[in-house]
Design goal:
The chain is of the alpha+beta class. It is 32% helix and 38% strand. The protein contains 3 helices and 4 strands. A 4-stranded antiparallel sheet has the order 1-2-3-4. The longest helix has 17 residues.
Length: 152
Amino acid sequence: MNKKFPPVSTIDQQYTSVEKNLSELTDFSPHIGVNIDRDIILQYLPPEIKKAAEAINDENILVQNVTPKLSFDKQGIFVEADFSVRFPKYSIEATGNFKGVTAVSTKSDSLYLRSALTSLKIESIKFLKHPKISQKVLAKLLSPFLKIISTM
């Protein structure tokens, strides 16, 4: 578990969204209404999710091929994405998918999208070179990387 950024549940994000929206209603005097078309969200949100996931990259981990898909609900935007991750130091590539939800929240004149993961599934692990250590030891080395990914 990441002590600086503990995991946040999707329900927590939805409650935070509703609480923030309600707190803004106390001094809210509407003059106009705004509708964000579903097509706009479909056009702009998946590339932003891809960009944020791939921004994790450093010399130890390379997140690639993130392909988000969205579905909609009254209180959230559900996200599912396939991905691949490379661990250059160990010559390992893993593929999998994650699922999460994004809740919409407002503050003053800004719109926020609050995201949280609901699941992370590793579907395959491929050794690009024959490992010099046993697979059991290697699996223990990979465990911290997978924990880091699951808290993002």
